[in-house]
Amino acid sequence: MADPDQKQVLPQSVLFCCDQNAVRSPMAEGIMKKFYGQDVYVQSAGIRSDLEIDGFAIAVCSEIGVELDRHRTRSFEEMEKLGDELSSFDMVVALTPASRSQAEELTRFDHLELEYWPVTDPSGAQAGDGREAKLAAYRVARDEIVTYLQGRWGPPS
Prior knowledge:
Blueprint: E1 13-18, H1 24-36, E2 41-46, H2 55-62, H3 76-81, E3 91-94, H4 97-106, E4 113-116, H5 131-153
Parallel strand pairs: 1-2, 1-3, 3-4
Helix pairs in contact: 1-5, 2-5
């Protein structure tokens, strides 16, 4: 049995995916890049990419020194047109049920690791809840991602 205190070896490349590539997957991409730097190639994509990066995601990531301002959303289809085939990644981490299904379908013949990290959808916070309530919901999702990353690969390097 593996030692739970022993961090697992980082893969050479990881793709995070969610539904729109506007909240959870860009947060995961940015946080992983900050934590593990140049040790791993990290990208993110969504099933669709018809939204811009979410301002609340940018705000809560900047609180921990992760810059997402320049992130451009992209879909699986757009990613593959740019030459980033899903099969070229060592690991795909799906953050939503729909992206997990899509990733399973797109990689069913490939030998890569597919994990599902069910991260809370912070965009469900109601508009009438106010800015602080919305930020709190986004912090929950951000902190879940941090917990998954550190649980899988240990503290930031």
